[in-house]
Amino acid sequence: MTLSKIGRILMALVASAALGLGMTACGGGTIGYMWVLGTQYNQITAFKIDDYTGNLTQSPHSPFSSGGTNPQSIVLKAGGRFVYVINTGVAATVSTATGSAGLPTTSTQGNISEFSVGGDGVLTFQQNFSSQGTTPVWAVIDSTGSFLYVMDKYSPAYCGAASCTVTPTNSPNFCTIAGCTSAGLTIPSDLNGSITAFSIAADTGRLTLVTNLQQKVGSVIATAPNYNQQLTYFEVGAAPTMVKISSAGCMYALSQTSLYPLSVNSSTGQLTVPTTGTITLSGAANLSSINTTGSYVYVTDSTNNTIYPLTSNSTACSLSTVSPGIVSNLALTSHPVQSITSSNGKFLYVVNQSSTANPLTPANSTISAFTIDSNGALAPLADSANPYAIGAGPVCVATDPTNQYLYTSNNTDSTVTGKIANANTGILSDLSRGSVFPTTGKPSCMVISGNI
């Protein structure tokens, strides 16, 4: 039987429409884009996400240069038009200090690279920016998309010595003075990291420094230059690794055993230190990640293989433990490094780099799934397949814009693993057409945007 002329025309129109929407006979069109950082070649691998299968297809011209060295963190401005990559840089082969104390040197400085997003998820480099401290390690954008916060391991005031004695007439950067005269005053060490705040231009995505309303105090050495002036950064605790903002408007900078809270002004981008002060988590050995969802905060401890379920107080940004307290990770898991909450707030997924069967190698990396009750408490998800196998050495986790799929970036085997996430049961299952996708090399973190 032959098709009528009208039938042939209708089929051609349908095929043309499908191509226009990016659809094929085997897929449901592109629902979003994924960008995966890689440290092997300082690259960004871009993928298109298929609606029907969750499969990943590399975008044209991918991979792209990260704009710097050692990319570790990537964030997306609300609306999906601009992406920012945090390139940590590389420490010097032999770490030395300036003078008798001070900041470790680096052989390659870190930076912030801005990219605009085009069709098919193609990235176009725009400009590099610098944070105020040294060795940027993480970034976060506030819920309004107006401000970018970049966290540095070392603040501009960092001083690696126990103390440093100086004379009032010397340079204001006291801890970089070689020798330090014994007749002068003693300045205590400052081992803190810092956060640089930027406002984001809505039209171009360009960054502008937000200065701190706090000032350098002149009480120690009143005649020293640069005192009684606004700071260009916000100090946090020592050796910070990650920072997140809760819906209560509280920022939490994570370090090895504690969190440093800051209150976020959504109108000005200003950060202020609440009366709570540093929050130390009892029994913590090596805090590895922080995840905020609503008023709840979930922190993982990679050494103890535990999870802290916490509630954020918006008034003082304090944290209180959700009853019944610290939760043990699932059996046969170890070294949790990241977590993410489902969009409906019912499930928590914890990414584990290894297992107790072979803790020294990431050959048995997994995702642990937990249910979240109305009070924020966790319980293991009842599924015989839980924890779920993924690629080796996961670093980051993200969900697609429709919350159908969950993905991990896996550093050891240079892959991305995809899973179907059941919104009603929380159960994870393999994608229908294969769940493993190769990246360019040694992925670190990732971010996902909706179709723009």
From TrEMBL:
Cleaved signal peptide residues: 1-17
GO MF annotation list: 6-phosphogluconolactonase activity
GO CC list: cytosol
SUPFAM superfamilies to which the protein is assigned, alphabetical: Calcium-dependent phosphotriesterase (SSF63829), Nitrous oxide reductase, N-terminal domain (SSF50974)
Domain of life the protein comes from: Bacteria
Pfam family, one: Lactonase
This protein's UniProt keywords: Carbohydrate metabolism, Glucose metabolism, Signal
PROSITE patterns per record: PROKAR_LIPOPROTEIN (PS51257)
InterPro entries on file: Cycloisomerase_2, Lactonase_7-beta_prop, N2O_reductase_N, WD40/YVTN_repeat-like_dom_sf
One biological process term in Gene Ontology: glucose metabolic process
Family designation: Belongs to the cycloisomerase 2 family.
Protein name in UniProt: Lactonase, 7-bladed beta-propeller
Organism: Granulicella rosea
